Amino acid sequence: MLFVHETHRVIGRHASAFEDLVRDEWMGALARSDDTRLLWYLNHAMGSGPAYEVVTVTAVADGAAWEALGARMAAGDLSDLAARLDSYRHEVEGKLLLPVYWSALQRVGLDQVPTDGRRHGLSVYMQDTGWPDAPLDDYIELWDRDYWQIMRQTPPERRLLDVQACFQVAHGSGIRPEAILMQKIVNFETLGRLLTDGGVPDPTTWPGTYMAKGLEVRDQWESKLLRTSAWSPLW
Amino acid sequence: MLFVHEFHKVVGKRAAAFESAYRDGWMPLVAEGDEARLAWYFDLAHGSGLAYRVVTVTAVADGAAYVRLAERVARGDLRSWARRLDGLQHESLGRVLAMVPWSPTVPPLADIPVGGVTREPSLYMEDTMWPFPGRLRHYVEAAGAVYRPSLAAEDARMHMHVALGLETLPGAGRSPEVTLLQRLPSLPPLIALLTQDIPPEVTGPGSWMHAALDLRDRWRSRLLRTAPWSPLP
């Protein structure tokens, strides 16, 4: 299964129209094919980064389904909708993601993903994107051994994040080396401490010595705080 | 057919090893299976931009073949090759591209050589354009109907041959974006372009450059030189 990750730079005055179009028309039109579903619609939380930036993640069953999606958008039943979406944004930057070997999310039951825009509460994700200066495989293994495994052993009341997925970029569809963590924030008090504490991370609230070990493979990463819309199929 | 276009920031001290990794590694390895071929290996011409930059273009049969290739890199027989490449480049930025409707094509995959080629380098101008929001389709149509034929006109200032016209597939790069890979058969027109002002008749009303400003006003040109062993000239 492939995950199409797109970062949309939306035209501010069209922000509502863009979201309405995705919710009311695009999501359902995508689902006319059994092998494609919108999973997440996330707004980059204002005050934490760029304004009017939206992240979407779409699950596609396989390479043939992805190519078919491209054909539908270029000259098929999605071409008019795709052009309308284009008119509401400055640009979109996309990459194809493959789950890494230890990712909890490997496949999605596409027929279980809602497409009706049903409303729910909001969630906030911390999306971490890292660019190692060591081989990519070493970074992915470090995340497994010294981050994910330790996070899982942390008592629930002390967890900041629930790591829901980890991806690497499919070769040739984005930056290499790059890997991505999709992490749902489960404790906003801990997030507040993370944001306001300028000291060395406390190993009792942060997973072990990960921060120190991480510097052996990378010192460049970016965290984005992404808030799901009230209708995002996954949240 | 789809094209995996990669722009590599090569470690300067490892430039020769990087080229070898593609010539002696990637080119034969991807050819196992008959559904992918390295098509071009380009160096960005020194003196025209960033140093130690390489562009590779790998042709794949279709979307399913592309994903099989990506999975070979992520967890299959190409994983160790990719791991070694991580030490030879700072990073690479890849896109997966499809031909626009009017694009010329490349030879069938089986006819693209997998080694044994030595020839004089060719010079290409790779233009990448970013149409205004909502104008992608209009730009693609106009580029095919007006721009491409103009390159072959007798009074054309730039005689170039469009080898490929490409646009980004969803989720595999930036959009709206169009890339034209254009082969330069001779140098004098390029030198003239670089050293002389563009005359008003080329930029004024009625010209492609003038009309196309309704569709885009940002693009980037790269001057790329094929390696002597590049499978396609």
What does this structure look like?
- The complex is a heterodimer of chains A (235) and B (233).
- Chain A is built from 6 helices and 9 strands, in the order E-H-E-E-H-H-E-E-H-E-E-E-H-H-E.
- Chain A has helices at 15-30, 63-75, 79-87, 136-153, 188-196, 210-214, and strands spanning 2-10, 36-44, 53-60, 89-99, 124-130, 161-169, 175-176, 179-185, 221-228.
- In chain A, strand 2 and strand 3 (53-60) form a beta hairpin.
- In chain A, helix 1 packs antiparallel against helix 3 (79-87) and helix 2 (63-75) crosses helix 3 (79-87).
- Chain B has 233 residues and is of the alpha+beta class.
- Chain B has 2 domains: 2-108, Alpha-Beta Plaits (2-Layer Sandwich); 123-223, Alpha-Beta Plaits, CATH 3.30.70.
- In chain B, helix 2 (63-75) crosses helix 3.
- Chain B is globular, with a radius of gyration of 18 Å.
- The interface between A and B is large, with 50 and 48 residues.
What layout of secondary structure does this protein have?
The complex is a heterodimer of chains A (235) and B (233).
Chain A: E1 2-10, H1 15-30, E2 36-44, E3 53-60, H2 63-75, H3 79-87, E4 89-99, E5 124-130, H4 136-153, E6 161-169, E7 175-176, E8 179-185, H5 188-196, H6 210-214, E9 221-228
Antiparallel strand pairs in A: 1-3, 1-4, 2-3, 2-9, 4-6, 5-8, 5-9, 6-8
Chain B: E1 2-10, H1 15-30, E2 36-44, E3 53-60, H2 63-75, H3 79-86, E4 89-99, E5 123-129, H4 136-151, E6 161-168, E7 174-175, E8 178-184, H5 188-195, H6 200-203, H7 208-211, E9 219-226
Antiparallel strand pairs in B: 1-3, 1-4, 2-3, 2-9, 4-6, 5-8, 5-9, 6-8
